[in-house]
Specification:
- By secondary structure, the protein is α/β, with parallel strands linked by helices.
- It has 5 helices and 11 strands.
- Helices cover 27% and strands 23% of the residues.
- The strands form 3 sheets. The protein has a 7-stranded mixed sheet with strand order 3-2-1-6-9-10-11.
- A hairpin with a 2-residue loop joins strand 10 and strand 11 (199-202).
- The protein is globular and about 40 Å long.
């Protein structure tokens, strides 16, 4: 019997495909409008407002845009950590110092990512964050997140747990990406809240 990676089982693959297809139908204006609303919603959250360090990522393509949020955090004096993808799909981290500090990197045949161009701080740097922003494709009513299937953030969550670090876990999504059910495995860890252009929904 062929092995099926739980992160990419048939149910997850189909849901991911449908939601990514819907994202790809968005216009640049749709993405820009949502970005401003997402940044405002996230910045109004007490855990974000009080954060000294936030681990985030740079959105690509039609993903819910993060750049407005990253710049606003930096203007507030918040330390912003961004991931750099390693060969084994784990994540190293570097500091965000504005858009000039980003490098466009292509990993194999996958999409280009924007990564910090400066000093690498090591995979454990994420444990210093008060808030971790997780990329996602969907989240359900239990707070369970559907990612892109690479497993990088499963490693991040496991690393946080081993370090007994408990930052607020947030995911930025479009409204239609809050769904009834995400196929899940016993080890999946729910996020604390989802931020959409329309508002914030908390799960715990």
């Amino acid at each position: 019997m062929p092995h099926i990676d739980p992160a990419n089982g048939p149910g997850k693959r189909a849901l991911r495909r449908d939601l990514l297809a819907a994202r790809n139908r968005l216009t640049a204006a749709d993405v820009r409008e949502a970005a401003d609303a997402l940044a405002a919603r996230a910045l109004g959250m007490p855990e974000v407002a009080g954060a000294h360090a936030v681990a985030a990522y740079v959105s690509v393509g039609a993903e819910p845009s993060t750049l407005a949020l990253l710049d606003a955090l930096r203007e507030r004096g918040v330390r912003v950590l961004l991931p750099a993808l390693l060969a084994d799909n784990d994540l190293d981290w570097g500091e965000y110092a504005g858009t000039d500090s980003l490098a466009r990197v292509r990993h194999g045949g996958r999409m280009e990512l924007f990564e910090p161009a400066g000093e690498r701080l090591g995979p454990e740097a994420v444990t210093e964050a008060d808030v971790v922003l997780l990329p996602g494709v969907a989240v359900d009513g239990r707070g369970l997140r559907l990612g892109r299937g690479g497993g990088s953030y499963d490693r991040v969550l496991a690393r946080l747990e081993r370090a007994e670090a408990y930052p607020a876990l947030l995911v930025l999504l479009y409204g239609r990406e809050v769904v009834a059910h995400v196929p899940a495995e016993p080890h999946d860890r729910p996020v604390d809240a989802v931020v959409t252009p329309a508002g914030v929904r908390r799960f715990r």
